[in-house]
Each structure stands twice: as C-alpha cells, then as structure tokens.
Amino acid sequence: MSDVLARVKKIVVEHLDVEEEKVTESASFIDDLGADSLDNVELVMAFEEEFDIEIPDDAAEHIQTVGDAVKFISEKTS
Amino acid sequence: MSKRRVVVTGLGLVTPLGCGVETVWSRLIQGQSGLARIEHFETDDLSCQIAGIVPRVDGRNGGAPDVDGSFDPDAVMAPREQKRIDDFILYAIAAADEALKHSGWEAADERASERAGVLIGSGIGGLQTIYDASVTLHERGPRKLSPFVIPAMLINLASGQVSIRHGLKGPNHAVVTACSTGAHAIGDAARLIAYGDADMMVAGGAESAITRLGFGGFGAARALSTGFNDNPKAGSRPYDKDRDGFVMGEGAGVVILEDYDSAKARGATIYGEVAGYGLSGDAYHITAPAEDGDGGYRSMKMALDNAGMTGGDIDYVNAHGTSTPKGDEIELRAVERLFGGTADSLVMSSTKSAIGHLLGAAGAVEAIFSILAMRDGICPPTLNLDNPSVETAINLAPKAAVKKTVDVALSNSFGFGGTNASVIFRRAD
C-alpha cells in the first residue's frame, strides 16, 4: 500500500468514524462511507493539511472516492 | 377560535447541579450549590472567576464517571459528531432526549410526527465556536474555516438537531431574547399548540457562554459578581445585602408540551398545565431594568389575565432574581405591587442562588423547578440569603426549602434589551 493511500485512509477513518476495511480505493465518501457534502469539504481540508498542498474548489469537486483523493494527492506531491 | 389546553408531560435538565431531573431537583431542595471556580480555562485576568458549570465525567466541577448526574458527552453522541456542534446544542439534545423519554411520547404515525415540533432557544448561541473561528480566520485565513462553523453556532440548530434526531416534522422554531429566552420558548410553543399548529412541542432553552469571551463581555458590562472568587458557592446571593452581580451558569432545560386531549388519550402523566403567559418590553435601557419595575409588572399581569387569575391565586413565584444590586429589588417591588395584600402568603425564591444564571436556558430550567414545586409541594430555597437588603412580607425561602402546597406557580424571566416573560403553571390531572 502506498504511503499516500495509508495516510488518506487514516484521515478518512478518523473523520468519518468508519472501519478501515471499508476504506477501499473505490469507496465513495458519500455513497459508501456515510459522508455528506460538508464532510467532503472537511476531508479535503484535512488532506490539504496532511500533505501541505492546496486543493482548489474545482478539483475538490471531482474528488469523490478514496482513489480520486490518492490520485490527486500523488500527482500534486510527486 | 377556541384555544386548546396545553399541558406539560415531560421534563429534561442539564444544569450545574448535574444532569437528570430527579438528581438536580433533589440536590436543589437539599440546598446544594453547583457553583465553583472555573478551572477549564485561564481566568487570572478576568474579574469574575466563578460559574455554575455542568459537572462532567472528565472531572469538570466535580464530575466523574461514577458520580451520579455527571454529564457524559459521549453518551449523547459520537465524538466525531460533537465536533460539529457547540456545547449549547449538546446540552439541548441531552435535555430533549431526557424529556422525550420521560414523557413516553412516540409518533404513532407520520401524521403525528408532522404535528410535533421543536422550539428551543438560546440567549447567545455558539460563543466559543464563533471565537475559535475568528481566531482561525485571523491567523490562517478563510480557507481554514471548518464547514461546520456556521451550523455549530447557529441558535436555531438546537431545534434543528433535535428535530433531525427524533424525526419531529412540525413547527421548527427558535427564540432569542437573552435571559428570557427559555420562558418565551415555552410560552410561544404553548401558543402553537393552543392555536392548533402542533399537537406536541419540545420546548426550552440552552446556553454555554462560560467562555473567556462571555466572561470578558459580561464583565465589561459590570454584570458579574466579582467579590466571591475565593468562595464561589456564596457568589450568587439574590436579595442579600452583599450581592454584587450575577454568577453565570450553563446547561439546558427542555419540556414536552402537549395538547391536553392528546395527552389524556395516550394516558400520559401530566405534570401541570401552561395556564398563562405574559410578555412585555421595558423600552428603557439595553442592560438595566427600568427603576419602576413596570415591564416586569405588566408581564406578570398579562400572564395572570391570560390565566383568568389574580395575584392571590399564585402560591409560588420562581423569581428572575439574578443577584444583581438593582434588579432583585425592582422585581421584588413589582411582585409586591401585583400581589398587594396577599403578598404575605406568597413564597418566592431565586434558584439562581444554587445554579447561577443560565441566561437563555434560565427560564426553561426555572419553569421545570416551578412545575416540580407543584408536584412535590416544596419550594426550593434562596441560598446565601443571610441579610436581606430590603424588608418584605413575601417569604423568600432563605437558605432552606419551604414545604407548601403549590397549586399554581409563576416563573419570571427578564432579559437585556428590556424583554420580559412570565409563565404560569397550574396543577392539572
């Protein structure tokens, strides 16, 4: 498991209070992990903080799954 | 249209004397005090360093997991959810949970849930949330603000959260009238039922302003007690000659109000009837009460007229009585004026002497104390009343509860801005 995926998983587990097994790359924050639109905003902020990056609003809109987040962050930080 | 009778069928309390109606009430009538020194934030530079703090399982104000009545936020909701609401909402939810459970009310069908509403107010709302967000904005900019800042601090989100939690789809409303919020919430909610807009209302007030901003602000207005930082339990002393300001409290009071016929039909225990409600404005000053006490007088008079009663019908008054040098005597004189020759048979006490001033929650908590006074025939004491500053024929229940049959009780709440509310409860079967 990549370092980015592990860190993203940890944030998602903490913020959404879900079991780690459910946080797969294909899991949708809203459809599978019980998030609402405000949770999504908070998650994006937490990713920004953890990886010291900025995620613009238009990019944030496309981060719907754990995999989307990992992909975006990996590209930003590579 | 003919108005419907409205009765109280459930009670819920979170107060500095603990959580849970029976725990709080038994401590109150025993003469215990919930006031303490503030230990959970820096107070060295504050003029007032004492408060009525809700005891918590984390040790705050003597609370502990094995101490009866200690507030456990985790028992109300998951830690993740707690971060999205200010404490005043947390208290409101806990008190509403207790009141609903206590009442035994459950929505029989979809129609019943659409006829059940919530009207919980707060004087100030999420003060600490606003403060924390302001600091974040100043130091780190708007992109670092949580999406939960606004829903965490909005006053009507207490009603919103309770509605969502219990599926209550009727009127969803909130009152904001400073220290008379809780009384107005109960009075207004009763009217919604009386006029047929709802059959059941969850009504009350909640507050959590024991914060540095709250103490700095009220301290600047010279409203708080400053002379009892080393003896906190003596700080709130309504009518006593040494009183020097109010002691802030926190918590929530919530009642379940129902249309009389609906309550009877489901066999609910009826704790009392909302018999009268009065409201008025001083039109005088932003923080000081009018010297002649006319606002409070007219509020009480309207409630009596509304109930079809006279002063002599009232057995117990739960006073606003905040322990400020001016306000206590003004209210006392207004009550004397209203009750005339019957004042000598009246018992009036200020329970703020035991729990402090819960601001927007005060009226609701004190309404519950008034109802329990009727239930048990006991008027709670005015603690610390060693030397009354004035002579009066009224029994102020100094330092010890007074046993008395109470068929009718009146609860007063007056707030900044010159807003006044009086609610009368009568025994009902």
From TrEMBL, chain A:
One cellular-component annotation, GO: cytosol
Record domain Carrier: where: 2-77
Post-translational modification: 4'-phosphopantetheine is transferred from CoA to a specific serine of apo-ACP by AcpS. This modification is essential for activity because fatty acids are bound in thioester linkage to the sulfhydryl of the prosthetic group.
Keyword Repeat attributed: no
The entry's keywords: Cytoplasm, Fatty acid biosynthesis, Fatty acid metabolism, Lipid biosynthesis, Lipid metabolism, Phosphopantetheine, Phosphoprotein
Xref: Pfam families: PP-binding (PF00550)
Modified residues (O-(pantetheine 4'-phosphoryl)serine): S37
UniProt main location, coarse: cytoplasm
One MF term in the entry's GO annotations: acyl binding
Location within or outside the cell: Cytoplasm
GO biological process, one term: lipid A biosynthetic process
Pathway noted in the entry: Lipid metabolism; fatty acid biosynthesis
Family under the similarity heading: Belongs to the acyl carrier protein (ACP) family.
HAMAP family, A to Z: Acyl_carrier
Protein's job: Carrier of the growing fatty acid chain in fatty acid biosynthesis.
Name the UniProt record assigns to this protein: Acyl carrier protein
Gene name of the record: acpP
TrEMBL record, chain B:
PROSITE patterns from the UniProt entry: KS3_1, KS3_2
Function: Involved in the type II fatty acid elongation cycle. Catalyzes the elongation of a wide range of acyl-ACP by the addition of two carbons from malonyl-ACP to an acyl acceptor. Can efficiently catalyze the conversion of palmitoleoyl-ACP (cis-hexadec-9-enoyl-ACP) to cis-vaccenoyl-ACP (cis-octadec-11-enoyl-ACP), an essential step in the thermal regulation of fatty acid composition.
Pathway: Lipid metabolism; fatty acid biosynthesis
Active site: C179
Family: Belongs to the thiolase-like superfamily. Beta-ketoacyl-ACP synthases family.
Presence of keyword Acyltransferase: yes
Official protein name in the record: 3-oxoacyl-[acyl-carrier-protein] synthase 2
Protein's cellular compartments: Cell inner membrane
EC number(s) given by UniProt: 2.3.1.179
Pfam families linked to this entry: ketoacyl-synt, Ketoacyl-synt_C
GO annotation, biological process: fatty acid biosynthetic process
CDD domains: KAS_I_II
